[in-house]
Amino acid sequence: MKLLLTSSGLVNKSITNALRQLLGKSFNKANLVFIPTAANVEEGDKWWLIDDLQNCKKLGFASIDIVDISALPKNLWQPRLEAADVLLFSGGNTFHLIYWIRKSGLEKILPKLLEERIYMGISAGSMVASRSILLSQSEKLYYDDLGQYKDEEGLAFVSFQVRPHFNSPLFPNARASFLKEIAKEIVEPIYAIDDQTAIKIVNSKVEVVSEGEWEVFNLG
């Protein structure tokens, strides 16, 4: 399985090169699907979501499709994901995203899809790849068919937790002082990455790609 977990997407050459290496071909020969579902419940200006798409466009992909798994039935979104080389899950509300990954049926087929495709995450899209989304600051949402939001389980594609936006003043729970304390209550490692950093995973090999700041808690 190949993953590229980012805080803010394709924002620098190091992260862009990491994605190109995972693809094994030029961007103009690759198809990308952008999944904006996590952003649906976020209020206000979506400049950050537009920036994420613009950064993809600048790389010259053969095609960029936008597929909201909460808005389409499986028979419509599945073939569009199958046509892609990169599945990019956007930022937004972590709990909303994992809810729809499960409710849509994507969770069941995603491991098979990723045998030949790259999973890329931005912020919330990166956090759901972990075993737990405990570190998310997203507001938990109430869903009638669940009675309440039931769990904090992620997809467990990686054996560590991801905390994007490391040391950002906009995210108090992403500061080193907070993470140092909460790490005492968490068994697995925590990779804290800022907006200029990504985590590249090929099978079980983990590599941090950065032009910024990052730190690992509970590594050893």
Q: Could you explain how this protein is built, in words?
A:
By secondary structure, this protein is of the alpha/beta class. It has a single domain, classed as 3-Layer(aba) Sandwich (Rossmann fold), CATH 3.40.50.880. The chain is 28% helix and 21% strand. It contains seven helices and ten strands. The protein has a seven-stranded mixed sheet. Strands 6-7-10 form a three-stranded mixed sheet, covered by helices on one side. It is globular, with a radius of gyration of 16 Å. It starts with a strand and ends with a strand. About 4% of the residues have low confidence.
Quick tags:
220 residues; alpha/beta; Rossmann fold; seven-stranded mixed sheet; three-stranded mixed sheet; 7 helices; 10 strands; 28% helix; 21% strand
TL;DR of this structure?
The chain has a single domain, classed as Rossmann fold (3-Layer(aba) Sandwich). 28% of the residues lie in helices and 21% in strands. The chain has helices at residues 13-23, 47-58, 74-82, 94-103, 106-113, 124-127, 176-182; strands spanning 2-6, 31-35, 63-66, 86-89, 118-122, 161-163, 190-193, 197-202, 205-210, 214-217.
